[in-house]
């Protein structure tokens, strides 16, 4: 269970080598030692082991699971293993790919990769997590969305479309799980300096993994259904959503 000041006893990270996810796990672990499950692809085993060793230095218990977003047939087994040692207080869904937008709308396999990893897999996991959390009667899910899903842009509409679907599903899940004592937090970070965005031009109001992690921890503690990082980006998107299409498509964003 999460204690009175918002610190969980257990944390599941799907996408366990994500810079933002690891910064979040570290913030939780520095507040109090906890049980952490890191799940990611077999190819990330070296980084997973390094992350686990770092987190164990906080006094936390850390285990590792092999997880492949594109193998939906394995998702139920992964979730069963994650919950095998007891309740999970907080789950962070933090995996995803940016993809090449031009390939994404001209190459079927490139488009499917973005859709499968950013939308289909999180929905599959969301359904499985919802069943576990309803049964245990408590818990929080935080999922990494993006402002890119709020309005289509020429530069990244394939990625944005996958995040739009994810965002709507988990926003709806906040309503569906509320009566079961389970809360869902959708996280919409602005550009963040991570390995996912390495080599890309930074946008104004850019984040660090640590600043996004703080927003996630605070959002989960408050039970917020939606958070932006930084918080003031909410107002930026509120304006951009209402810019006429003829003008919006010409903006250098």
UniProtKB/TrEMBL annotation:
Pfam families linked to this entry: adh_short
Swiss-Prot/TrEMBL keywords: Oxidoreductase
GO MF term set: oxidoreductase activity
Gene3D superfamilies, per the entry: NAD(P)-binding Rossmann-like Domain
Stated family: Belongs to the short-chain dehydrogenases/reductases (SDR) family.
Protein name (database record): Decaprenylphospho-beta-D-erythro-pentofuranosid-2-ulose 2-reductase
Source species of the chain: Saccharopolyspora spinosa
């Amino acid at each position: 269970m999460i204690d009175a000041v918002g610190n969980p006893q257990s944390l599941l990270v799907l996408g366990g080598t994500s810079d933002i996810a690891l910064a979040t796990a570290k913030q939780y672990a520095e507040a109090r030692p906890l049980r952490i499950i890191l799940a990611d692809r077999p190819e990330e085993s070296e980084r997973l082991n390094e992350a686990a060793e770092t987190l164990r230095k906080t006094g936390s218990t850390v285990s590792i699971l092999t997880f492949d977003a594109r193998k939906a047939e394995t998702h139920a087994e992964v979730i069963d293993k994650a919950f095998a040692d007891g309740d999970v207080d907080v789950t962070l869904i933090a995996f995803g790919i940016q993809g090449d937008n031009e390939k994404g709308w001209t190459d079927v396999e490139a488009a499917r990769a973005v859709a499968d990893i950013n939308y289909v897999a999180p929905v599959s996991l969301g359904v499985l997590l919802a069943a576990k959390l309803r049964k245990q009667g408590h818990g929080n899910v935080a999922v990494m969305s993006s402002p890119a899903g709020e309005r289509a842009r020429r530069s990244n509409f394939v990625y944005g479309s996958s995040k739009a679907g994810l965002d709507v599903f988990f926003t709806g899940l906040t309503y569906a799980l509320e009566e079961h004592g389970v809360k869902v937090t959708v996280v919409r970070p602005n550009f963040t300096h991570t390995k996912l965005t390495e080599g890309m031009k930074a946008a104004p109001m850019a984040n660090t993994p640590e600043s996004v992690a703080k927003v996630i921890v605070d959002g989960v503690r408050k039970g917020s259904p939606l958070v932006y990082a930084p918080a003031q980006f909410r107002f930026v998107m509120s304006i951009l959503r209402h810019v006429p299409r003829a003008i919006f498509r010409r903006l250098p964003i």
